[in-house]
Structure formats: structure tokens, C-alpha cells
Amino acid sequence: MKSEDAVLSAIAIFTLVFLFLLVSSDDTILDADDENNWAITDICLDDHNSLATHEHVQIEIVINGSKVSIGPNIGIGDPGCSGMRGIHTHDNTGKLHIETPSPMDAPLGAFFQIWGESFSEEVIMGNYSDETHEVVLTVNGEVNYLYDSYMMMDGDQIEIEYRSL
Hints:
The chain has helices spanning 2-34, 108-115; strands at residues 44-45, 53-63, 66-67, 76-78, 81-85, 87-88, 95-100, 123-124, 127-128, 133-139, 142-143, 157-164. 25% of the residues lie in helices and 32% in strands.
């Protein structure tokens, strides 16, 4: 009986260790996926000189039928950057300025990261999709399923809508 108890105890311990390692590694993978390290969010420009890119994108956000104001100076004079981030606004028209010293990707999610707002296929500015609501991204009039990873292009017309199903 004692040897059976020892074997069962060993199996139980190995099972618990295995489950712990499985849960721990999944958390690490999820945490890595949640953090987007887009190079453009680290850009801090002092002025408009020596730019490799200077593009514009128009964005509109609608939550439950109400247009959200996208304020002026998002990405300008932020903590850690007294100048302009690689994606920023100058006014409240929803016009994004993408300005970089070298060519680089400008994912839509990078603007929201700079702004300090949430955006993905599941959430827009704290409004989560569920059984009664959805987040819909359209780019130039076409539904787009890339959400935060969509690479913005000069002249894009982007609309993000949170609406009832």
C-alpha cells in the first residue's frame, strides 16, 4: 500500500506542476500579445524638418450613434516627448498626421496607444463588444477586419463604430 500511495502522490505532484507551468506559460504569451511595440509610438519630433513621411488620415469614431470628438494636440507635448509623436493631431477635425524621420509602418492601434485609449476588435474607448453590441472598422468605405493592426495609408478615410447588433 505504501508504494501505491507514493506513486499516486508523485503523479499528483507532477500533474500540479504541469498545470502550473501550462497556466504560467499561457499568461506570458497573452501578456506578450497584449503589448504592441510599434516603433512609430517612440518617435518624438522637434519640428517638421527632415521628414521622410508626412501623410494624413481622416478618422471618425461613432459610439451608439454619437460622434466622438477627437481632440487637438493628441501626441503633442506628451510625457516623455515635448515635441510631436509619429502620429498626432493638430485640431479637433479627426485628421491624423503621420510624420516620421524614416519610412515606417503606421498601425491604427499606435494612434490609440499614443492617445491612451483602448481599441481592438473587442473594444473601442472602453465600450466592449458583447451579445448586443459590436465594434466595426471601415476603411475607405469597406469593412476591415485588421482593427488595431491595420496599417494606415495616406488619404485613408477610417470609421470606427460601436453599435447595437
